[in-house]
C-alpha cells in the first residue's frame, strides 16, 4: 500500500496538489480530507477535483482542530478490492505494516484508528467507540440525550447552523457532565456511561437532577438565541445485550408522553408492544392489498319519528380469520406504515358505491390529515363530480383535531359544498375550540359528543352542556345529532332537549349491511 500526504492552506494550493496527485495510481484508492470545517471553498473544490481524478475512489471528509491547514491523505492499495471494503482493507494493511516499518507508520495507523472512533463534527468519541467501551463494562447504566427540537432548528436555520448547534451542545455536555466521557451517537443524540451498579430509584433521582442541570440551555448564533430542549432515557439493566434498543424504546416513550426522561425496565415489556405493532402492520398491509377495509353502516334516525334518515359509514378491518378490527387499532398503524390514504379512499369509494342509488344521506369521517392531503382532496372532488350521491354525502370533521392551516379547511368546505355535500362537526363538545368554530366551519350538522350524551340522565353538567349546544345550534340554523344513545331513557332525554337526530346502540349497531 502506498500512502501519500499533502498539506494545503488555501484554495490556491489546489492546482499544485492535483498535479502531484494525478501521478498516483487511479484504482483502489481511499482519500481522507482532514480540515477544521468542511463547508469551505478549499475543501469543496478539492473534493470535486479529486472526484474527477479518481472517479471510483472513496472520499471521506474528516475533522481536526487545526484551523489553518487542510491535510490530504491518499491511500493506494496494490490489490483489487470492492470500494465498500476499502476502509477495512486499509486498516488491515496499516496494521500489517506496523511490524515492518518505523514509528512514523505506526502514527498513521493510530491516526486512522482514532478517526474511525471519533465523531468528525464534535471531535467526541462516536457510537463505535461507545460500543467498544461497553464491552469492557460490567455494571453500568447507559444514559442517552436527545435534542427535542433539532429537526425544527435544522429546517429553519439550515444545516450550517444545525452543525454549529450540535458542536455547542457537545461542548456544553462535556462541561456540565465533566466526570463522564460524552459520546455523540448520531444526528441529535448524545450519550455517556454511568460505570456503577445503580438501582431504579437512585437512577431516577440522578436523571431528575441531571435534567434540571442541563435544561434551559441557549445557543447564541450571531446574536440569535436558539433554545435547546432535551429528552433523556436510560435503563436499569446493566447487560449490554440489546442495551441500545432498550434505551431507544425508553427515549421514544418519553417523547410520546412529553416528559423529561424515562427509564427502561424489563417488566415494561416494550418488546411485546413492538412485536404486536409489527404483527398488526402485517395485518393492515394484507387488508389494504386485499380490499379487506370495509365500511360498516350505523343508522341515524329522526328523533321525533324514529325514522331512519341517514347512515354513518364507519371504517372496519377484516383480518384473514374474519375477525373485525376497530379503527382505534388499525388507523394509527396505517398512518405509520403510510397506507392511511389508501384506507380513506377505500372507505369513500365503497360508501359512495353503496349509496349511489339510495335515498338516504350518508356520512364519512375525515381527519385533518385527510383534508390537508392534496391526494385525498382531489380524489373527493373527482368522486363528487361523477356521483349521483354528491348532494347526499356528509363529511364529518373531528372537532378535536387541531387545525394548522384553516385556509385549506375553508377551501375544502367551499369546494365540496359546490357539489351539494354537507359538513358535520363530529364529537362537538370534546375539542379545544369554542362556539366560534361552528360559524367558521359553516357546519350543517353538529354531532354532540357521546361522552356528554351518554350521561345526560345522571350528570347535570353534561345535561346543561348538551342543552346549551342544542339552543345555540338552533339559533344558527344548524341541525344536531346525538351520539351514544344507548337506552330508552337517553332517547327520551334527547327528544325532550329537541335534538334533531339520534344515533347509538339503542337505535342500531354498526353492520356491513343497511337496515
Q: What count of helical segments does DSSP give?
A: 19
Strand content: 15-25%
Q: Compute the average pLDDT.
A: 87
Main β-sheet, spatial strand arrangement: 12-13-15-16-17-18-19-20
Identify the overall geometry: elongated
DSSP strand count: 20
Query: What is the name of the CATH class of the largest domain?
Result: Alpha Beta
Structural class by helix and strand composition: alpha/beta
**CATH-wise, what's the superfamily of the largest domain?**
EAL domain
Report the C-alpha radius of gyration, rounded: 32 Å
Low-confidence stretches: none
N/C terminus separation: 82 Å
The main pleated sheet reads as:
8 strands, mixed, barrel
CATH architectural designation of the largest domain = Alpha-Beta Barrel
Into which percent range does the helicity of residues fall?
40-55%
The name of the CATH topology of the largest domain is: TIM Barrel
How many structural domains in the coordinates? Answer: 3
Protein name: EAL domain-containing protein
InterPro entries: Cyclic-di-GMP_PDE-like, EAL_dom, EAL_sf, GGDEF_dom, Nucleotide_cyclase, Rev_trsase/Diguanyl_cyclase
GO molecular function, one term: cyclic-guanylate-specific phosphodiesterase activity
Organism: Candidatus Sulfurimonas baltica
What does this structure look like?
There is one protein chain. This protein has 3 domains: 2-116, 60s Ribosomal Protein L30, Chain: A, CATH 3.30.1330; 127-268, Reverse transcriptase/Diguanylate cyclase domain (Alpha-Beta Plaits); 275-502, EAL domain (TIM Barrel, Alpha-Beta Barrel). It contains 19 helices and 20 strands. The protein has an 8-stranded mixed beta barrel, surrounded by 4 helices. It has a 5-stranded mixed beta sheet with strand order 6-7-5-10-11, sandwiched between helices. The protein has a 4-stranded mixed beta sheet with strand order 1-4-2-3, with helices on both faces. β6 and β7 (189-194) form a beta hairpin. Helix content is 44%, strand content 22%.
Amino acid at each position: 500500500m502506498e500512502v501519500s500526504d499533502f498539506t494545503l492552506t488555501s484554495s490556491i494550493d489546489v492546482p499544485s496538489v492535483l498535479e502531484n496527485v494525478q501521478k498516483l495510481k487511479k484504482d483502489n484508492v481511499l482519500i481522507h480530507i482532514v480540515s477544521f470545517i468542511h463547508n469551505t471553498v478549499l475543501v469543496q473544490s478539492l473534493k470535486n477535483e479529486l472526484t474527477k481524478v479518481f472517479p471510483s475512489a472513496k472520499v471521506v471528509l474528516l475533522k481536526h482542530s487545526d484551523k489553518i491547514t487542510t491535510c490530504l491523505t491518499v491511500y493506494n492499495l496494490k490489490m483489487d478490492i470492492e470500494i465498500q471494503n476499502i476502509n477495512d482493507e486499509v486498516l488491515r494493511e496499516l496494521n500489517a505494516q506496523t511490524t515492518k516499518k518505523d514509528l512514523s507508520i505506526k502514527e498513521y495507523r493510530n491516526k486512522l484508528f482514532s478517526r474511525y472512533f471519533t465523531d468528525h463534527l464534535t471531535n467526541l468519541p462516536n457510537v463505535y467507540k461507545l460500543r467498544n467501551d461497553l464491552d469492557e463494562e460490567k455494571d453500568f447504566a447507559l444514559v442517552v440525550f436527545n435534542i427535542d427540537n433539532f429537526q425544527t432548528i435544522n429546517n429553519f436555520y439550515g444545516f450550517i447552523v444545525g452543525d454549529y448547534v450540535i458542536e455547542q451542545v457537545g461542548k456544553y455536555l462535556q462541561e456540565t457532565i465533566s466526570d463522564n466521557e460524552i459520546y455523540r451517537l448520531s444526528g441529535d443524540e448524545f450519550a455517556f456511561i454511568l460505570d456503577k451498579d445503580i438501582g431504579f430509584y437512585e437512577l431516577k433521582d440522578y436523571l431528575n437532577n441531571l435534567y434540571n442541570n442541563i435544561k434551559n440551555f441557549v445557543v447564541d448564533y450571531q446574536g440569535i438565541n436558539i433554545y435547546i430542549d432535551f429528552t433523556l432515557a436510560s435503563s436499569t439493566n446493566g447487560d449490554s445485550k440489546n442495551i441500545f434498543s432498550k434505551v431507544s424504546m425508553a427515549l421514544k416513550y418519553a417523547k410520546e408522553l412529553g416528559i423529561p426522561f424515562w427509564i427502561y425496565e424489563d417488566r415494561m415489556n416494550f418488546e411485546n408492544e413492538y412485536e404486536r405493532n409489527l404483527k398488526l402492520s402485517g395485518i393492515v398491509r394484507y387488508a389494504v392489498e386485499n380490499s379487506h377495509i370495509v365500511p360498516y353502516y350505523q343508522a341515524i334516525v329522526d328523533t321525533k319519528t324514529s325514522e331512519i334518515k341517514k347512515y354513518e359509514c364507519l371504517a372496519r378491518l377484516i383480518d384473514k380469520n374474519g375477525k373485525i378490527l376497530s379503527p382505534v387499532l388499525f388507523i394509527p398503524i396505517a398512518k405509520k406504515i403510510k397506507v392511511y390514504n389508501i384506507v380513506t379512499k377505500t372507505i369513500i369509494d365503497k360508501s359512495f358505491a353503496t349509496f349511489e342509488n339510495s335515498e338516504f344521506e350518508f356520512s364519512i369521517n375525515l381527519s385533518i390529515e385527510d383534508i390537508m392531503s392534496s391526494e385525498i382532496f382531489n380524489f373527493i372532488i373527482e368522486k363528487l363530480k361523477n356521483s349521483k350521491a354528491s348532494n347526499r354525502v356528509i363529511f364529518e370533521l373531528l372537532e378535536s383535531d387541531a387545525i394548522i392551516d384553516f385556509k385549506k379547511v375553508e377551501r375544502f368546505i367551499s369546494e365540496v359544498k359546490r357539489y351539494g355535500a354537507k359538513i358535520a362537526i363530529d364529537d362537538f363538545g370534546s375539542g379545544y375550540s369554542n362556539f366560534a368554530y361552528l360559524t367558521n366551519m359553516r357546519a350543517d350538522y353538529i354531532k354532540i359528543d357521546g361522552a356528554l350524551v351518554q350521561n345526560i340522565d345522571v350528570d347535570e353538567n353534561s345535561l346543561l352542556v348538551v342543552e346549551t349546544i342544542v339552543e345555540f345550534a338552533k339559533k344558527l340554523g344548524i341541525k344536531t345529532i346525538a351520539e351514544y344513545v344507548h337506552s330508552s331513557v337517553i332517547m327520551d332525554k334527547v327528544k325532550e332537549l329537541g335534538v334533531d337526530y339520534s344515533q347509538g346502540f339503542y337505535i342500531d349497531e354498526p353492520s356491513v349491511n343497511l337496515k
